Amino acid sequence: MCPLHPSAQRFQKILAEKGFSRSVLELPDLTHTAAAAAEAVGCDVGQIVKSLIFKTKKTDRPVLVLASGRNRVDTKKVHALLGEKISKADADFVRLHTGFAIGGVPPLGHVSPMKTFVDEDLLQYDELWAAAGTPHAVFKLTPAELQAMTGGVVADIRQA
Ligand code: 5CA
Question: pTM for the full model?
Answer without folding.
Answer: 0.97
